[in-house]
């Protein structure tokens, strides 16, 4: 025999809505670097979001067409007497991001600036080398 069960979508929607516990001990997310890469005729322009990171803690390496961005967000322990921390959602630690572009970068002419939590890289493309055809003797 089969039994029928009545389904109420509102019951599922509101189930636990008012009784969800607040998780004070939940771990914070790991920091991430979100990037936008734009290609222009002679350069690549990269914008990397890095809120809460000081410019002294950012390192950029360019090797051919490979670009690596490394940063560290340091935790500042500042608690006053009689103060109790209830929740920490900001993440701390090292984060890195590497990506490869379509053409080698002229690292000598590259530039970087950091303003309002956004790192802007201007990466000029290296001049393409002409392929040389060898004659066989």
Set out the fold topology.
Blueprint: H1 9-14, E1 34-39, E2 43-49, E3 58-63, E4 66-73, E5 93-100, E6 111-115, E7 118-124
Antiparallel strand pairs: 1-2, 2-7, 3-4, 4-5, 6-7
Protein model, in words:
This protein is mainly beta and 137 residues long. A 4-stranded antiparallel beta sheet has the order 1-2-7-6, with no helix packed on it. The protein has a 3-stranded antiparallel beta sheet with strand order 3-4-5, with no helix packed on it. It has one helix at residues 9-14; strands at 34-39, 43-49, 58-63, 66-73, 93-100, 111-115, 118-124. It is flat. Strand 3 and strand 4 (66-73) form a beta hairpin. It is 4% helix and 34% strand. It has a domain at 27-75 and 91-127: Immunoglobulin-like, CATH 2.60.40.790.
Distance between the termini: 90 Å
In the predicted model, the low-confidence regions spanning at least 5 consecutive residues are: none
Number of strands: 7
CATH architectural arrangement of the domain at 27-75 and 91-127: Sandwich
Number of helices: 1
Report the sheet-strand fraction: 25-35%
CATH class membership of the domain at 27-75 and 91-127: Mainly Beta
Strand order of the largest sheet: 1-2-7-6
Percentage of residues assigned to helices? under 10%
Sequence of secondary-structure elements: HEEEEEEE
Give me the Rg, rounded: 26 Å
Note the main sheet: 4 strands, antiparallel
Query: Looking at CATH, which topology of the domain at 27-75 and 91-127 would you report?
Result: Immunoglobulin-like
Mean pLDDT: 81
Briefly note the structural class of the backbone.
mainly beta
Can you tell me the overall shape? Answer: flat
